[in-house]
Design goal:
Layout: E1 3-7, H1 14-22, E2 39-44, H2 48-57, E3 61-63, E4 66-71, H3 86-95, E5 98-104, H4 120-152, H5 158-172, H6 184-193, E6 201-206, H7 213-222, E7 227-231, H8 233-241, H9 244-254, H10 260-271, E8 274-281, E9 284-291, H11 296-303, H12 305-309, E10 311-318, H13 319-325, H14 328-333, E11 338-340, E12 350-356
Parallel strand pairs: 1-4, 1-5, 3-9, 5-6, 6-7
Antiparallel strand pairs: 2-4, 8-9, 10-11, 10-12
């Protein structure tokens, strides 16, 4: 399962956000380094299509797609050289596929901060700098190990040399690798190499009331291409702890149509490059998360390895059309159920039946 790491400076609201997301009871405290071992939670993805399919199909069991979140302890200046248990924390970040970077936009004198004032742009730059310094160290060691091969067989390794040299030059310019236009294959190679600054990032601006909203916009201006979600993590935790009826009433009073948590989860799902497809079998409706561009046979393996091994073909319909008609037979009578082969790309919102040899 792909995972998202929640990072940031100490006391910016990472564990509060994680608790709201997962109801896992991760310890929250007004002290740096409360989170030493990372907390892990699997969070359902809000999905109106799944809700619509549930209404029209009335299944006995419904299982949503999920995102795996990891609450990683706060990084500080000097983390790349081991400050504040930095080596351990950086090691955790290397394992995740994307990053939720929580920045503090709220002003609360009773909540300690590593700096004397609140400046989310500076705080974001501190984290970026530490990640880039850590990457420079890792990349420098990798280049030294590869130099002999580059010299003895230059033509065989020309593209690797050019790629790694470009990465190092970008880092030396103070440019995180995510900003240099990476190919999906590059992301896999970066993760294997233990490089961090190329991972996709979602900024979560943690506010306390509308007066902090201007600070959130400063974060967006710093990196216009990045995704940004503004939340009040303490309010989100309060909402998460309410019963559904009470939550709906409270949200109506606040004029909210969706929670900030829903926006964070959906944005994280998109950040990971995931799409959802649906299966209906034995009165069980399930959403499955797969990387965008996944072939039908590989998607079948997500459901069960035997389905991928014995794949014959798949029948594909549109969830939106099934919700509209309320009847799969009606969709089929319109000629809108397609039969596809193993290499067909499964799209977001497909309802799929896999045919296979056991």
């Amino acid at each position: 399962m792909l995972s998202v790491g929640i990072v940031g400076l100490p006391n910016v609201g990472k564990s509060t956000l994680f608790n709201a997301l997962t109801a896992a009871g991760a310890e929250v405290s007004n002290y740096p380094f409360t989170t030493i071992e990372p907390n892990v939670g699997v969070v359902p993805v809000p999905d109106p299509r799944l809700d619509g399919l549930t209404r029209v199909l009335d299944p006995e069991k419904v299982t949503p797609a999920t995102v795996r979140f990891i609450d990683i302890a706060g990084l500080v200046e000097g983390a790349s050289t081991g400050e504040g248990l930095g080596n351990q924390f950086l090691g955790e970040i290397r394992q995740v596929d994307a990053i939720v970077h929580v920045v503090r936009c709220f002003r609360k004198s009773d909540v300690a901060h590593v700096f004397a004032d609140v400046d989310p742009v500076r705080d974001a730059e501190v984290i970026d700098t530490e990640l880039m310094l850590a990457d420079l160290e890792v990349l420098g060691r990798a280049i030294e190990k590869r130099k002999r091969d580059w010299q003895t067989r230059p033509q065989d390794h020309a593209s690797e040399k050019r790629r790694m040299t470009d990465w190092r030059q970008a880092l030396e310019r103070g440019q995180p690798l995510r900003r240099i236009g990476l190919h999906p294959n590059d992301l896999r190679e970066l993760k294997t190499a233990g490089l961090i600054s190329g991972k996709p990032v979602l900024y979560v601006a943690n506010i306390s009331g509308e007066s902090d909203a201007d600070r959130a916009s400063e974060v967006a201006e710093r990196e216009p291409d990045a995704h940004l979600v503004t939340v009040d993590a303490e309010l989100e935790l309060e909402l998460a702890e309410l019963e559904p009826d009470e939550r709906a009433e409270f949200m109506q009073e606040l004029g909210l149509t969706e929670t900030g948590l829903d926006r964070v989860v959906k944005a994280s799902f998109d950040l990971l490059g995931l799409v959802a497809f649906y299966t209906i079998a034995k009165r069980k409706l399930q959403a499955w998360e797969i990387p965008n561009g996944t072939a039908a046979a590989t998607a079948a393996g997500k459901v069960h390895s035997d389905m991928e091994k014995g794949f014959i073909r798949a029948k594909v319909a549109s969830a939106d059309e099934l919700i509209e008609t309320g009847d799969l037979h009606e969709v089929q009578s319109r000629g809108h159920v397609r039969t596809v082969g193993r290499d067909h790309e499964i799209h977001d919102g497909d309802v799929v039946e896999f045919l296979f040899n056991a």
